[in-house]
């Protein structure tokens, strides 16, 4: 029946290594488990959508899932080419579907694939939904489909999504700015989407890596650090106004300013919160995860906005967006959504909103960043360490920090320990450290924020030493 024990749903669906645990038999099993959930929730008069990203075999996994659903009596609409996660999510709502299955491992390395179920409300499945799907795994088989395609049709999700996005953006204002833009698709699903929107908004666009490469050029489909080195060079060499990118399934964004600085998602969240209030006249709460900058707290307090903190994972932000009016919700890993959009992160929208902010202000992006950081009582410096540990070592580290948290780190006293999602250490001088396991990869992640680069280095080094000194169980 495949390797049942490895099928686990994390913060954004189930991911695994292709041909190890992510196999066709396990895809059949998970699809049948999702279908069993659909049977108890939706009428079969509503279609199920299926999408996929640019990964190796993602299209074949998707067509297999479509065939399984069709065998079980569901009418299936599968995309006509790889597509962004926010695009299939929007169409799930737009087409009054029973939800969508999206085959993607997002920003994970090339050997990974994944599957996520997106309900009809166009956001990530809640824990209640994924728990129900996981419970169904013991009740279904991994039998392959019969091959009957009578219930399956293809569709183009692009027109409906673009119409929706153009209704959110101030296209005329962006067009009037005549921005010079460099765009690195990183071999992702945003090719043919983000470049189209930029061109329609009157931008002068030069694009890179706008073709499918299942190995992502030998790198990671993650828009940060060394992956954006080429984009940085292009922006600086040609004196562009901005450099834009997305991750593999285009739900995360990457931004380079006109000086060639890669801007952190924390800064972009702050910048766009200000833009939406100042230039677009929007109001609403700000929602951030426990791993995201407290500069957003300062900004919210200054503008009289509610601030909500959630656990890591955009599904928690999406839930809050469905419950109340949210101006902007986002996370330090590069996902955001705004008022009027779907409760799902969207890298294409995020990139275009930054371009829109430049168009409104008529100032270089680097200047806008400095202004908003100053207004929020910054700067603060953020860092994340990803440590690949054995399962026994990971368990020992989590147990140690949970039951015997340190009283100081790098000489800075700890005044409070939070346990909302992982272990969060609040230091005396206003810094914080968050330690938690990844929900999608075999990693321990350490997040930290403090008010100087020197303290970042000191605290990061001290945390790594502490973790490696803990012996595996």
UniProtKB/TrEMBL annotation:
The keyword Endoplasmic reticulum does not apply. Transmembrane segments: none annotated. It comes from the Bacteria. CDD domains: PGM_like2. InterPro entries: A-D-PHexomutase_a/b/a-I, A-D-PHexomutase_a/b/a-I/II/III, A-D-PHexomutase_a/b/a-II, A-D-PHexomutase_a/b/a-III, A-D-PHexomutase_C, A-D-PHexomutase_C_sf, Alpha-D-phosphohexomutase_SF. GO terms for biological process: carbohydrate metabolic process; purine ribonucleoside salvage. This is Phosphoglucosamine mutase. It comes from Phormidesmis priestleyi ULC007. The lineage of its organism: Bacteria, Bacillati, Cyanobacteriota, Cyanophyceae, Leptolyngbyales.
């Amino acid at each position: 029946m495949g390797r049942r024990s490895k099928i686990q749903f994390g913060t954004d669906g189930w991911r695994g290594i292709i041909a190890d645990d992510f196999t066709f038999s396990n895809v059949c099993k998970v699809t049948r488990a999702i279908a069993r959930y659909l049977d108890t929730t939706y009428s079969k008069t509503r279609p199920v959508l299926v999408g996929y990203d640019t990964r190796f075999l993602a299209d074949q996994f998707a067509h297999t899932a479509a065939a399984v659903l069709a065998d079980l009596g569901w009418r299936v609409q599968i995309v006509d080419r790889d597509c962004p996660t926010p695009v299939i999510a929007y169409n799930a709502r737009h087409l009054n579907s029973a939800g969508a299955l999206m085959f993607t491992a997002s920003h994970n390395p090339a050997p990974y694939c994944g599957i996520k179920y997106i309900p009809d409300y166009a956001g990530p499945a809640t824990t209640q939904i994924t728990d129900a799907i996981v419970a169904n795994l013991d009740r279904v088989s991994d039998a392959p489909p019969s091959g009957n395609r009578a219930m399956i049709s293809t569709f183009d999700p692009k027109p409906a999504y673009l119409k929706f996005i153009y209704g959110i953006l101030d296209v005329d204002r962006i067009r009037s700015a005549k921005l010079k833009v460099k765009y690195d698709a990183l071999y992702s699903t945003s090719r043919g989407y983000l470049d189209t929107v930029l061109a329609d908004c009157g931008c002068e666009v030069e694009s890179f890596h706008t073709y499918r490469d299942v190995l992502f050029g030998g790198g990671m489909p993650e828009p940060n650090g060394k992956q954006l080195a080429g984009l940085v060079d292009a922006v600086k060499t040609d004196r562009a106004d901005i450099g834009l990118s997305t991750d593999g399934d285009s739900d995360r964004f990457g931004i380079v300013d006109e000086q060639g600085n890669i801007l952190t998602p924390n800064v972009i969240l702050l910048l766009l919160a200000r833009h939406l209030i100042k230039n677009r006249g929007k109001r609403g709460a700000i929602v951030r995860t426990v791993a995201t900058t407290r500069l957003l707290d300062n900004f919210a307090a200054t503008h009289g906005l509610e601030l909500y903190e959630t656990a890591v994972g955009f599904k928690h932000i999406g839930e809050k967006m469905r419950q109340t009016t949210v101006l902007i919700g986002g996370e330090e890993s590069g996902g955001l959504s705004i008022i009027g959009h779907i409760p799902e992160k969207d890298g294409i929208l995020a990139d275009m909103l930054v371009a829109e902010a430049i168009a409104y202000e008529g100032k270089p992006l680097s200047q806008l960043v400095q202004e908003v950081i100053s207004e929020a009582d910054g700067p603060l410096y953020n860092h994340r360490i990803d440590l690949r540990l054995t399962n026994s070592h990971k368990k020992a580290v989590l147990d140690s920090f949970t039951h015997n948290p340190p009283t100081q780190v790098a000489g800075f006293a700890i005044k409070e320990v939070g346990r909302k999602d992982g272990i969060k250490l609040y230091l005396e001088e206003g810094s914080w450290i968050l330690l938690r396991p990844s929900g999608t990869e075999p990693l321990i992640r350490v997040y930290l924020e403090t008010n100087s680069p020197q303290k970042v280095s000191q605290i990061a080094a001290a945390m790594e030493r502490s973790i490696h000194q803990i012996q595996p169980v």
